[in-house]
Amino acid sequence: MSNIVAIVGRPNVGKSTLYNRLTETRKAIVDDFSGVTRDRHYGIAEWVGRSFTVIDTGGYVANSEDVFETAIREQVVIAIEEATVILFMVDVTTGITDLDDEIATLLRKGKKPVFIVVNKVDNHALQSDATLFYSLGLGEIYNISSMTGSGTGELLDEMIKCFDDEPAEENTLPKYAIVGRPNVGKSSIINALIGQERNIVTPIAGTTRDSIHIHYNRYGHEFMLIDTAGLRKKTKVKENIEFYSVMRTIKALEEADIIILMIDAVEGLESQDINIFHLAEKNKKGIVLVVNKWDLIEKNSKTVKVFEEQIMEKIAPFTDVPIVFTSVLEKQRLLKVIETAEQVYENRSKKISTSRLNDIMLPIIENYPPPALKGKHVKIKYITQINGNAPMFAFFCNLPQYIKEPYKRFIENKLRENFNFSGVPIQIFFRQK
Ligand code: GDP
Ligand code: GDP
């Protein structure tokens, strides 16, 4: 299930204000972890229990005047192709500009659901002005004030009706997505894996148009590979390489079980990579880190360790993630990438029996119980794994509200030490018993 909401519109209409409002709480959490200060233009939002990815296209427009309008037009075209729903934002205080008209024309030609979001309708008096935007010819208008949040509820209620609720496809093969910044070597690795024998590759028709799902079935390995790189070369994306690649990445990320995040050994893990990492983590996807172009690094006996430590520091606190050092150029460890993804897939799908879980975890807890709070002792009685796509554990106890973050971390580490969850975000809940 992949639901992506793109906010498009010309500058200053209030896109990033709405984006911030929609992603507020989540964003704070992520930024707390990573210490990344760079602006984030995409993130996870939630409405009545439905989560979706929202992308603020404004963050991807170049500043220079001459490419500016071209860039915006191009973005709208990409958004029409890639997003589930488009929020076309306009500004009640300025009325309809030429660029608004142009965007509307593009959107009318596209086949995606479009919501006209008339922003800055801060008071009743402005509501009659807003009716002007019916003339854009895109149907209903939604008056909101991003600043106060008024009107956003009605908009979101309608918007989620357009979401795709179907399970992605009946195909149950593991899905691996190769993601990463432009130029890290994504196309190269896919070519190296499948290139010589294109005939073993069956592009799956009927999925989202253009989305590249490759059925890999060789040497006893069978899975679907989601390619985020191949397409870029075919479309006429000029001004928006980064936007396009982020869009593809988010989409692949929602569809896949396992994210193979490729980075360039020379450039190291950058803030954009960290953002993708956290998005994968938040989406409870399995993760494999691939450090490519390893051939370009001068190495000694400590190099791998130094790289690993630098990466761990940046992705903390979730550091139980496998790292594979590859050179696509020299065909080094490419199969290892596949095998690692398979291992992570297995880790993510595994179910631990309640008896085994309790046999191992209860003695650990007994040795190191949760600290007492206000003179009260927390007693954990039993543990069970909850059914779901990704590992979740419920710890039943008398006073769940007394368990604090450090103890939760301790429990998570012990689970990781005793059962292999490498590459897999796990969730732990303390419940009343
Ligand atoms: P973007 O360029 O489309 O991302 O626009 P911004 O979100 O940066 O907003 C542009 C300006 O409009 C900022 O000064 C915001 O404070 C202001 N703004 C955004 N939403 C509202 C709103 O609902 N009402 C009013 N009055 N101003 C708003
Ligand atoms: P993408 O944009 O992520 O798909 O990256 P490409 O696969 O197009 O690769 C970008 C450039 O990096 C190309 O010139 C590749 O030949 C080069 N490249 C890819 N893998 C390696 C590698 O392992 N070592 C070196 N030295 N270059 C590589």
From TrEMBL:
Entry binding sites for GTP 2: 180-187, 227-231, 292-295
Keyword Repeat: yes
Gene Ontology biological process terms from the UniProt entry: ribosome biogenesis
Residue numbers binding GTP 1: 9-16, 56-60, 119-122
Swiss-Prot/TrEMBL keywords: GTP-binding, Nucleotide-binding, Repeat, Ribosome biogenesis
Keyword Manganese: no
Domain EngA-type G: 3-167, 174-349
Pfam families for this protein: KH_dom-like, MMR_HSR1
InterPro entries: AAA+_ATPase (IPR003593), G_ENGA (IPR031166), GTP-bd (IPR006073), GTPase_Der (IPR016484), KH_dom-like (IPR032859), KH_dom-like_a/b (IPR015946), P-loop_NTPase (IPR027417), Small_GTP-bd (IPR005225)
SMART domains in alphabetical order: AAA
Molecular functions (GO terms): GTP binding; ribosome binding
Quaternary structure, from the entry: Associates with the 50S ribosomal subunit.
Function: GTPase that plays an essential role in the late steps of ribosome biogenesis.
Family: Belongs to the TRAFAC class TrmE-Era-EngA-EngB-Septin-like GTPase superfamily. EngA (Der) GTPase family.
Entry protein name: GTPase Der
Organism: Mucilaginibacter robiniae
